[in-house]
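Supplementary Note 3. Input sequence used for the single-chain structure prediction.
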Amino acid sequence: MARYLLTLLLLANTAAYAADDQDTEDTSPTHFKSEVGLGFTSLAGNSDSQTLNANYNLEYINGRYKTDADTSLLMAKKNGEEDKRKISTNLKSQMMIRDGYYLYANGSYIDDRYGPYYVDSLVSAGIGYRLFSYETFQTLIDIGPGFRHQDPNLDEIDGDIVKPEVVNEGVLQSSVTMSWKPLKTLTLDNKINVVAGKSNTTIQNDLSVTNSITDNLGLSVGFNYTYYTWVPANMKNFDSSTIVSLIYSM
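The predicted structure, written as discrete structure tokens, is reproduced below.
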């Protein structure tokens, strides 16, 4: 079901582009950027392990429209056997309307064979505001209703933050995204994402620092921290991970 929702989201965004091109002529430049990353991840909190990761990020801007997409793969072996295999995909489209305001549609899908949920998907839509927009510093704030579906991995209940029932519920999602470029070769990005629902509320913070080595190659150090309002007994309310990656921009 989650795959179909993400497909519909992408088709709707494509249709919106086509409809707008028929009505108005936009002479704004088109911007396209893609990045490939390969790195090392260290997990802490309710999980303590080290593993390799790979990710692909895409950014496309055409006039008033902007689309960000990313896919990441996390795999690890323990004692010669596969211990982790997680694929996550995110897609977010924005349409600027006026005076810094924009409409957005967002979808995410996680397929995790050994995690707390086999499937963890979310779709949401709402309105946002570009609070700051300078050449070296930008801040975006948005909020909107959504729907969350989670299919629990019952074999992992004793070791993960998981509700033992299938979750289908309405949620409220809000995010704050900041980007600062204090130096020509240095970029700091931070994103705070809150998903509030009846089963659980999560607050996730992603901080990354990227230093350019060449025009196309950079070194990125990232830190992820997730807080849960509900956890099973004898478990911590947070999970964290530290990621070091080489980033190649195309």
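Confidence is low (pLDDT under 50) at residues 1-27. Residues 2-23 form the longest helix (22 residues).
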